[in-house]
Amino acid sequence: MNKFLAGIAAIALLATPTLAYAQSADADADADAVVGGGAGGAAGAVVGGLIFGPIGAVIGGFTGATIGAAAGVEASSVEYVRLNPTEPVVIDGDIDVGFVVPAEIELHPIEGDATHGYFYTNDRVYFVNLSDRTVVYSPGVVVAAEAD
């Protein structure tokens, strides 16, 4: 059973970047979608597999890839956020993709990414579209790099 689940997760990881790539329009969007689709697909497959078994892994992988590709957050942005942690803020309630971040919450810019900002809360980092302050992606718990 564990080998079967691992196989499903591997297939999801290999297939989702291809699917995300095929849905994109221009070269920069292609690269962003592949990163987001791969990350979302992997996370969705693992969570779906753990909760609902093999069928959940397939459905979770596809759903995660679609959401991740739409977010289009580059791997370099994720790395920048990991290397530049900020003080966490307090936000009551659940935060999901589409959540509009209140104006009183400071969004931190990402060097080299004029589209997204970020903030930390509840041991997670959230990527936000700066044009409308909506959450577009959260890779889950991100271990911040230690300051030297």
SSE inventory with pairings:
Elements: H1 2-22, H2 27-71, H3 75-83, E1 108-110, E2 113-121, E3 124-129, E4 134-137
Antiparallel strand pairs: 1-2, 2-3, 3-4
Protein model, in words:
This protein is of the alpha+beta class. The protein has two domains: 70 residues, no CATH class; 52 residues, no CATH class. It is built from three helices and four strands, in the order αααββββ. The protein has a four-stranded antiparallel β-sheet. A hairpin with a 2-residue loop joins strand 2 and strand 3. Helix 1 crosses helix 2. The radius of gyration is 16 Å and the shape is globular. Keywords: Signal.
First-residue to last-residue Cα separation: 44 Å
Q: For this entry, what is the oligomeric state of its chains? A: single chain
Rg is: 16 Å
Mean pLDDT: 71
What general outline do the C-alpha atoms trace?
globular
Strand order of the largest sheet: 1-2-3-4
Helix content: 40-55%
Query: Number of helix segments?
Result: 3
Query: What is the helix/strand order?
Result: HHHEEEE
Strand content: 5-15%
**How many strands appear in the DSSP assignment?**
4
Biggest sheet layout: 4 strands, antiparallel
Pfam family, one: DUF1236
Protein name: DUF1236 domain-containing protein
Signal peptide: 1-22
Keywords: Signal
Supply the key terms:
148 residues; alpha+beta; 2 domains; DUF1236 domain-containing protein; signal; DUF1236
